């Protein structure tokens, strides 16, 4: 009887030792991924940026996104996807110099949404081309207005659909006439 109790006690000790060894192995396995994470973190920022830009360049080669510039923003990708799914529309804004700005806005956009989208489009274009650093948009909207089929888009809260503007319609960016 005594031997059996000793064996059982010894068995319990060896089981306890086995558990400790298993725990140590688990800890060693857990420690190994940390070492890998440190290796991943060892990449310099410039290399990570290069990897990201290469992936982005491949993404932009997709037929759905091929119209986007190489230095694309997340907002532009989301707009293009929304356009493809019919959740957005393109409003072509014609400037006085003949340049056409394709502006993407949601289907139920207001005039104010269109103005904000024009602002984002121009700012991104300036960043990419290295143009003028600052534009006074208060001055722009005091000096110019948007027109669609001879009607001024004056009410910022009115929806574009209420003016009759649909996908691929052309809105003119015109200088306001001075009142004498």
SSE inventory with pairings:
Layout: H1 2-41, H2 45-60, H3 74-84, E1 88-94, E2 100-106, H4 111-129, H5 137-143, E3 144-148, E4 151-152, E5 170-175
Parallel strand pairs: 1-5
Antiparallel strand pairs: 1-2, 3-4, 3-5
Can you give a write-up of this model?
By secondary structure, the protein is of the alpha+beta class. Helices cover 52% and strands 15% of the residues. The radius of gyration is 31 Å and the shape is globular. It starts with a helix and ends in a 5-residue tail after the last strand.
Helix content: 40-55%
Biggest sheet character: 5 strands, mixed
Which structural class should the secondary elements be placed in?
Answer: alpha+beta
Order of helices and strands: HHHEEHHEEE
Poorly predicted regions are: 2-20, 22-28
SS elements, strand count: 5
Percent of residues in beta strands: 15-25%
- Order the strands across the largest sheet as they lie in space: 2-1-5-3-4
**Residue-averaged pLDDT, rounded?**
80
């Amino acid at each position: 009887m005594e031997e059996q109790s000793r064996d059982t006690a010894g068995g319990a000790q060896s089981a306890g030792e086995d558990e400790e060894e298993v725990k140590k192995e688990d800890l060693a396995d857990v420690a190994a991924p940390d070492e890998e994470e440190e290796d991943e973190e060892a990449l310099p920022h410039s290399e990570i940026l290069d990897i990201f830009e290469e992936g982005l360049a491949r993404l932009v080669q997709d037929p759905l996104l091929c119209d986007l510039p190489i230095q694309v923003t997340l907002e532009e990708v989301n707009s293009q996807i929304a356009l493809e799914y019919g959740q957005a529309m393109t409003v072509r804004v014609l400037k006085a110099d003949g340049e056409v700005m394709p502006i993407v806005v949601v289907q139920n956009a207001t005039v104010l949404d269109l103005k904000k989208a024009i602002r984002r489009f121009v700012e991104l274009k300036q960043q990419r081309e290295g143009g003028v650093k600052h534009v006074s948009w208060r001055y722009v909207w005091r000096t110019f207005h948007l027109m669609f089929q001879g009607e001024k888009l004056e009410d910022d809260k009115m929806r574009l659909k209420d003016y009759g503007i649909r996908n691929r319609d052309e809105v003119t960016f015109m200088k306001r006439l001075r009142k004498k």
